[in-house]
TrEMBL record:
Taxonomic source organism: Dyadobacter koreensis
Protein name per its UniProtKB record: cAMP-binding domain of CRP or a regulatory subunit of cAMP-dependent protein kinases
GO terms, molecular function: kinase activity
Keywords from the UniProt entry: Kinase, Transferase
PROSITE patterns: CNMP_BINDING_3 (PS50042)
Gene3D superfamilies: Jelly Rolls (2.60.120.10)
Domain spans labelled Cyclic nucleotide-binding: 23-120
Signal peptide range in chain numbering: none
Pfam families according to UniProt: cNMP_binding
Length: 188
């Protein structure tokens, strides 16, 4: 829980010890085996996952292909915000790519806590705004920028990708062929 506390303090330094203790009571820790789903395609997202160890990826299955849309490493939040907020089934899966430990924010328990604490409500809003801002930045980058700029962005925000993620997953994430990825990677 120390990593989560540091993460929250980084993004919301105002959290009081009392509210941190209240928040800890609604969190659970779960371990996932490599290949296990944190969230399945079509499933209603009921949680926000803080990755303690390991990593996972968001993957769409489209016309027989796996399309990777994100990687989540230690000290990052993973969720499907649209499914969580709108109550619709997830259009993608979140899969553990290594043995993984996550601290789980259960939606119902968290929302109930939000109703009792304006400070925790503000913290939750700030954390989700950060997740949304990153998603918007990625969407814009992937819509308008070159493969080289997408690669540079990926390395900047998640340098561990190159060491831990199979190249075919990285190529899918960047929307390029494996050959193009190899050329870009060798040029850096």
């Amino acid at each position: 829980m120390e990593n989560l506390y540091a993460y929250i303090r980084l993004h919301h330094p105002e959290i009081s010890d009392k509210n941190w203790e209240s928040l800890k009571k609604v969190l659970t820790v779960r371990r996932y085996q490599k290949g296990e789903s944190l969230l399945k395609t079509g499933e209603l997202c009921q949680s926000i996952f803080f990755i303690e160890s390991g990593y996972c990826r968001a993957v769409y299955h489209h016309e027989g292909q796996e399309l990777n849309t994100n990687f989540y490493f230690e000290n990052e939040l993973a969720t499907n915000i649209r499914s969580l907020k709108q109550g619709k089934g997830s259009e993608y899966a979140i899969l553990a790519e290594e043995d993984l430990e996550a601290i789980i924010f259960d939606k119902d328990r968290l929302y109930e806590l939000f109703s009792r604490s304006s400070e925790i409500d503000a913290m939750g809003r700030k954390l989700m705004e950060g997740v949304l801002a990153r998603q918007e930045e990625q969407a814009k980058l992937f819509q308008f920028d070159t493969a080289q700029k997408r690669y540079d962005y990926m390395i900047k925000i998640q340098p561990q990708v190159i060491e831990r993620v199979p190249l075919e997953h990285i190529a899918s994430y960047l929307g390029i062929s494996l050959d193009t990825l190899l050329r870009i990677h060798q040029g850096n």
